[in-house]
Amino acid sequence: MQSPGFSSADAALERAVRQPILFAELPHRAELLRLTTESHGRSATLYVHRNHAFEHVATALEPFANFANLRVSVRCSDYDDSLAMTGDAAGADVELFWLDYSRYGNTLSGAGLAEWVASRIAARRADTDRPLLIAGAPADSHGEEELNEALGERLTAIPGAYFCDLRPIGRQLGSKLYDSRAARLSGTPFSDAACVLSARLLGLRWLPAVLNGPLKAMVLDLDNTLYAGVLGEDGPSGVELTPEHHTLQSALASLGSKGVLLAVASRNEPADVDALFEQRPDFPLAREAFSAAEISWGSKSAAIRRVADKFRIGADAILFVDDNPGELAAVAGELPEIATLHAGPDVALTARALALFPGLWRWSLSTADQVRAADLAAASERDRIAEDASDPVSYLASIQPRLTYAVNATRHVARLQELSAKTNQFNLNLSRLTEAEVARRVESPDSAAVAVALADRLTESGVIAALFGQLADETLMIDELCVSCRALGRRLEDILIGEAIARMVSRTHASEIAFRYTRGPRNGPALRWLEQFSGQQLHGDAGVVRLPWSGETHAARVAALPVTIESEGTDGNG
Amino acid sequence: MATDSLRLKVGEIVGLALRRPPDDLIGLERGQISEWDSLKHMEIVFAVEDSLGIEFREEELLDLNSIAAICEAVERHRAA
């Protein structure tokens, strides 16, 4: 338990101390038991539908979940091979299906078993909108490979159902995956090591991926972090790229290719850093991999603030990596919401920590992730064009924006949910819809969900806005409106949102539109936009703004601006 | 006879698993400690094995019913 005087700097140091235990190749249960519980973080309840013991996972889960700023309480069903799901899962934030698939061996296996399990998950989906995690089989033998492949594929068709792959644990442990003693005495065939490794994946990857916001960027130190040595003393050719550093840099490059923005914050001379990247082609991380570089002798917290501004993200979406615990503490003291990782002397451990770090891992790679770095690079060019443009119309004429609309399109469910969950600055009502809730709205005849994709002559940004409306009487109630920060700054908000509203209104005969809003810690830009758009001042922490809708006014606005508007087409009920 | 350091180590692990001060558990049998159910028993066994680098035989597991009994079993393994 943290003492009242426990600061964010202390917390960063405590996290650094815990890293060798949590990110060991095989964490030790006794060492995990010694880690005290941290009192901060989001409380969450995990309900486990199971047919074998989960307790040995649950007792190891706490320190991993704590590292992800989660305080997880676990409730388990009775053992139930039939997955009748008669237990009381009410109030749970997440549900996990924890199954020993060998128990079905005499009746079902492989694809047939996957089909049956998926049908039970679909049945559960109909009763709850909460995220559903489904653990696969940990081994690749005896039909389990077919089971895992088929189950993973079937679950992609169920909104908000996520396949939790245990096969890396099976591959790591080999013959140590199972423990016959445990099977007879504690109700699970899994060995203690398998339970601990399962707890690690659950606490660091899977639960944060459905409960926490993602990390969008990493700010990296250079000396003794990305290589061994000190650039200013050893020179570009003197610093050493050890095999472990090569692995670490390759992992970072891979994260970069998956849409995590990379930046450098280093106390060095800029010319030395330029020379380093020019003279070290053996580095897997080339200079071009970094979307920002802060090379100076100033404070790193100030450098990270500049990076955050450039990336248009908050510090809570950044992971700062440094070999100096003092730097980690100093930065965390200034930016309490930032995530920190100590690049200690065990470089392989740092690489493992990156692979497991909460918020870096994704269920799947979205188009938005892939285009993030290119979009950021284009933002600088747009800023230059804006400075040169004499007025907003000439600016838009220069960048040639194109907005593409899709209404109630099931193919965009995952991206719409991602926008609802992740946007902070331009998120009007902070509803934080789950994937299942989004899917239900897309399929409902009384709802409209609009996905807006944005492109201009510089980049394709993909789907950057989500609007959700409820059709009631003569009013269109917009109760969720999110725009990615990557789309802001192009002076397109009014037309982008207005056209989405026009498309929703066209499905009704509404003469009035209403916006539901909630005041949050960081959604000032969305609230200010609503005040400007509606001409009304917002009061209180939450409320509804109503205004008449005029299609003619919107059409005139569209006609006046050099913006291309098109339809992607619809599916679902659209 | 188990050494003091072994008794301290095993006592610490049992206490951590049961979330009780180790001193409260000295001299008690499993049946006298309500938190020490079958699942906690295996957690204690796993943690002791992991911490001390030994693996108990299945027939030993049900006899590890106190800190003293666990220490004796550990000593037997070390002597073997």
What report would you give on this structure?
The complex is a heterodimer of chains A (574) and B (80). Chain A is of the alpha/beta class. Chain A has helices at residues 8-22, 29-34, 55-67, 110-125, 144-155, 167-173, 180-186, 192-211, 231-234, 243-257, 270-279, 300-311, 325-334, 347-356, 367-388, 392-399, 413-422, 435-443, 493-505, 524-534, 551-560, and strands at residues 42-50, 70-79, 94-98, 132-135, 161-164, 217-220, 261-266, 292-295, 318-322, 339-342, 402-407, 447-455, 460-472, 475-483, 512-518, 542-548, 564-567. Chain A has a seven-stranded mixed beta sheet, sandwiched between helices. A five-stranded parallel beta sheet of chain A has the order 2-1-3-4-5, sandwiched between helices. A five-stranded parallel beta sheet of chain A has the order 8-7-6-9-10, sandwiched between helices. In chain A, strand 3 (94-98), helix 4 and strand 4 (132-135) form a beta-alpha-beta unit. The longest helix of chain A has 22 residues, at 367-388. Chain B is mostly helical and 80 residues long. Chain B contains five helices and no strands. The mean pLDDT of chain B is 91. The chains are: A alpha/beta (574), B mainly alpha (80). Chain A binds chain B through residues 28-30, 33-34, 53, 55-56, 59, 180-182, 184-187, 192, 195, and chain B through 13, 16-17, 38-39, 41-43, 46-51, 56, 58, 61-62.
